[in-house]
Amino acid sequence: MLDNFIFSLSVALPIFLIMLSGFILKTKNIIKKDFITAANFIVFYIALPLKLFNNVSRSSVVDNFNFELISFAIMGTIISVALIYIYSKFVVEEKNKLGAFIHGTFRGNFVYVGFSLLENVTGAVGPLASLVVAFVVPIYNVLAVLVLILTNSNNKAKNQFKDALKNIIKNPFIIAIGLGIIASLINFKMTPLMQNTANYFDVLATPLALLTIGATFRVDKLFIDIKPAAASAIFKLIINPLLAVMAALLLDFSNSEIFLIYILFGVPTSISSAIITAAMGGDENLAASIVMLTTLGSVFSLTLFVFVFKLIKII
């Protein structure tokens, strides 16, 4: 029992400690706004796309494509939005906060935090997780736009639907995975020089991403709209992943697939949730509060779920 608990801490706590390092360095003014902007650019446009390309291109897409798991991820995300909408009727009193609540509760930080947890437990992200990203990220974006349009009386939000669809196509993660699939199918191999360079960026992606998350953490946003934010955190970190894992067990997914499903549905809210919500006229204060509270709460929820998974031999 104690060994399982120590293992859980050793897996989940380093993620938080890197984010905490980013927060401390920012408060000490060692990390400045320019660094955060540059680091986010490197992570989003270079390091993580190369990581995704590496994972997909160096594996057999045909052998690793899992239709059942990807279908579960897509349908599970859509169903979770419906469940969150029902849940919101009991916990969100102001209608103008509904879009921010739903968006913040379903959109997880799968690539940044999820990949970190996968690497800590399994030693690598793996091609399947990367392929899931190719389908889940577009679903996240489409659902986000629909939710924010349908819950926003401001017609200006509707004008951003086409722009959002264009951004899906131009998303560097989607492009990298698409190129990785092509490279895998034609058996393309990078030269050692190119591969070693890509590997350096691959290694850089995860810690730099976590560092920037910590650096953008704002304590003053934590307690704004604390009641709906807390309700969102409970659903995002406990209820949603628990329902997803139970469904995965009933559908007889393998242990590695169940763990991947947990990560997909149980990671904290992505900071892009707050950015998109604000851009589309949603309640940006609640959106920011949900990001902060789920990020903080995930320290405990990730440790708890990993402990239970270790206990019942899923990992």
Automatic annotation (TrEMBL):
Query: Pfam families in the record, alphabetically?
Result: Mem_trans
Q: Which Gene3D superfamilies match?
A: 1.20.1530.20
Top-rank lineage group of the source organism: Bacteria
Topology within the bilayer: Multi-pass membrane protein
Does the record's keyword annotation contain NADP? no
Q: Which PANTHER family does the UniProt record give?
A: AUXIN EFFLUX CARRIER FAMILY PROTEIN
Provide the transmembrane region boundaries: 6-23, 35-53, 65-86, 124-150, 171-188, 229-251, 258-280, 286-309
What family is reported? Answer: Belongs to the auxin efflux carrier (TC 2.A.69) family.
Name of protein = Predicted Permease
Biological process terms in GO annotation: transmembrane transport
Q: Which UniProt keywords apply?
A: Cell membrane, Membrane, Transmembrane, Transmembrane helix, Transport
Instruction: Provide one Gene Ontology cellular component.
Output: plasma membrane
InterPro entries xref list: Mem_transp_PIN-like (IPR004776), Na+/solute_symporter_sf (IPR038770)
Query: Which organism is the protein's source?
Result: Halanaerobium saccharolyticum subsp. saccharolyticum DSM 6643
**Cellular localisation:** Cell membrane
Source taxonomy: Bacteria, Bacillati, Bacillota, Clostridia, Halanaerobiales
